[in-house]
Amino acid sequence: RDDRISIGSAKELTDGNKHRLSLIMPYIQNYIVKYKPQKLDIIIALGDILKKNYPGIPTLCLSKYKNINGILIPNIDFFTGVIYNTLKFSNEDIEYNKKKNSSIFAGSSTGPFKNNTRVLYGEKCLKSQRHFCHITNLCQADHSEWIKEYPFIDNLVTVGISIESQLKNKVVVNIDGNTVCWSRLYWQMNSNSIPVYINKSEKYILCFDFADNSGSFVSCSLDDSISTIDEILVSYTEEKVQEINSTGKLFCNTYFGEYM
Q: 186-218 as b/e, with b when 16 or more CB fall inside 10 Å?
């Protein structure tokens, strides 16, 4: 009531969630100072995704299942500034026809341990001369468990790959991890490469999903991933590439332009 905030938690916060809360709270404080509500009770869901409803209490969330009633706020990469830094890299991208006739995915091993889409896509790439998959961090299980489940995994593990290096390829691949990627798709859409989204989930929704980004990337299944990317590299005309690039850049400029 007098610009003070009382914070309670259903369980002890992890260091990661404490950090997320510290990034979000200044915006809550600004709201309270400006509008001076007599009472404001809200829940801030600090996990990657909101999975249940909290009837009667407004609930802010970074992402959610589509059937959940939470209020979406920008994902955590907006609060940290990561998304703006990555968009600046793609702003300085080279022309499509100067890129290597190849595709790349780079990211950690997040996602379900069994049938991990990122790792299974990497297995497909091991058989190819122009499709590359780099697992930059093995996580969520011990190395011995990864080897037991995926004997080929060490052939995919490498050090981090910069955005600049990824954008030397004509196709840049996006694969969701535990939920949805916070910023990868946006910088890919803002580039001169063609984003390919493998196994795009229809279960989750992010803040900016209210806006239509169709036409900004190519969507496909894991089974069809290599053939889809091959079709892009072999058959896409300059006009088709330009159409996808222009649509993605327009989306990013419309919603993030003032920060780029």
A: bbbbbbbbbbbbbbeeeebbbbbeeeebeebbb
Per-residue pLDDT reduced to its tens digit, 18-35: 999 999 999 999 998 899
pLDDT at res. 127: 86
| Per-residue tokens: 42 | 């809200």
Q: Report pLDDT digits (tens) over 228-244.
A: 999 999 999 999 999 99
User: pTM, whole model, 2 decimals?
Assistant: 0.90
Dist CA 249 CA 257 (whole Å): 9
- pLDDT at position 1: 40
Token couple for 217: 């990337």
- Decide if 51 contacts 67 (C-beta within 8 A): no
DSSP-assigned states of every residue in 68-126:
---EE---HHHHHTHHHHHHHHHHTPPPGGGSEEEEEEEE---S-STT-HHHHHHHHHT
The phi, psi pair for 121, rounded to 5°, reads: -65, -40
CA dist 72 and 64 (Å) reads 8
d(CA 196, CA 221): 10
